[in-house]
Write a structure and sequence with these properties.
With about 300 residues, the protein is α/β, with parallel strands linked by helices. About 40% of the residues lie in helices and about 10% in strands. The chain contains seven helices and seven strands. β1 and β2 form a beta hairpin.
Length: about 300
């Protein structure tokens, strides 16, 4: 059995047992870990030298490319400028340069010529413009989801009516939409609401909201029409509240020069005009409302 003796590494000064170390090599003994670290350090040094060489080559290539790009931007290497030739004799023609001030004065005195034809410019967002129009254009029909399927025929020689359906709208929502339209004027404005307003169960607040809507509409049109609510089949309470609102609208409109369409009388007792939900009209009911609104747009402010 070989005799093991403790030896100390010359690099890390750590002791280890070895049987192959003699007294002569004891001083220069290096452990396996230090030899591995030394080998890795040499390899790293070689790699760093290669990286530096590659960086130098890359810098040279970049400098060459930048020089080429600058030459291309300048249009290549240009020839040295040719000196201007002096006239040898007085009889030769010499190009005289006009003074800048004189040339500018001549250009200003010369009448300008327009080679392009005038173009027509229009604003497709004129409907939302704050500037008032000179004359009213098409009619506006605005209301809740009851008028979703309202179809109005375009009168001859007049633009088609603008139908704006706002599902779930109440009187304040319609007032907000009228404010968005600004000072644009319409030939007539038809307003339909009420089915969603009775849910508040505040009759005086609802009446005040309708008065505000009609006030805004009158500022945008000389002819305002109220399309009255249709009877709902969603319980006695809703039916009673909507009936009371219909009666008040009919009376208030007749006293304040606002046309009124009595949809309640047209729908009450007629089958097939209300859908299964008991709120929205069927296709036949929507056609009846369309006919009534179309008639109000063609006639004056009469209650019917």
């Amino acid at each position: 059995m070989a005799h093991l003796q403790p030896v100390q590494c010359a690099e890390c000064r750590m002791f280890s047992h070895s049987s192959s170390v003699t007294s002569d090599s004891f001083i220069s003994f290096t452990c396996d870990k230090c030899r591995l670290v030394s080998s890795l350090t040499e390899k790293i040094s070689v790699l760093e030298a290669r990286v530096q060489a590659l960086e130098q080559v890359s810098e040279r290539e970049n400098s060459v490319v930048s020089v080429r790009e600058s030459l291309d931007a300048l249009g290549g290497v240009s020839n040295p400028p040719t000196p201007a030739l002096e006239p040898l004799q007085r009889g030769e023609w010499v190009t005289a340069r006009r003074h800048k001030r004189r040339a500018k004065a001549t250009a200003e005195a010369r009448p300008r010529e327009h080679h392009s034809s005038p173009r027509h410019v229009s604003n497709r967002f004129a409907l939302l413009s704050d500037a008032p129009t000179e004359k009213p254009e098409r009619a506006l029909v605005i209301g809740d989801s009851i008028i979703r399927h309202v179809k109005l025929a375009q009168p001859l020689g007049a633009p088609a009516a603008l139908v704006r359906c706002i599902p779930g709208a109440r009187a304040p929502d319609i007032a907000g939409n009228l404010r968005v339209l600004g000072k644009h004027r319409f030939s007539k404005i038809v307003i339909h609401a009420g089915a969603n307003d009775i849910r508040l169960r505040q009759s005086e607040v609802t009446k005040s909201n309708f008065v505000e809507v009609f006030k805004l509409a009158k500022a945008m049109s000389d002819a305002v029409v109220c399309s009255g609510p249709i009877p709902m089949r969603r319980g006695d309470v809703a039916y009673s509240r909507l009936w009371s609102l219909n009666c008040w609208l009919s009376r208030w409109c007749s006293e304040n020069s606002v046309g009124f369409i009595d949809n309640w009388a047209n729908f009450e007792g007629t089958a097939g005009l209300l859908g299964r939900d008991g709120i929205h009209p069927t296709r036949e009911g929507a056609a009846l409302i369309s006919c009534s609104i179309g008639h109000s747009l063609r006639t004056g402010l009469v209650n019917f």
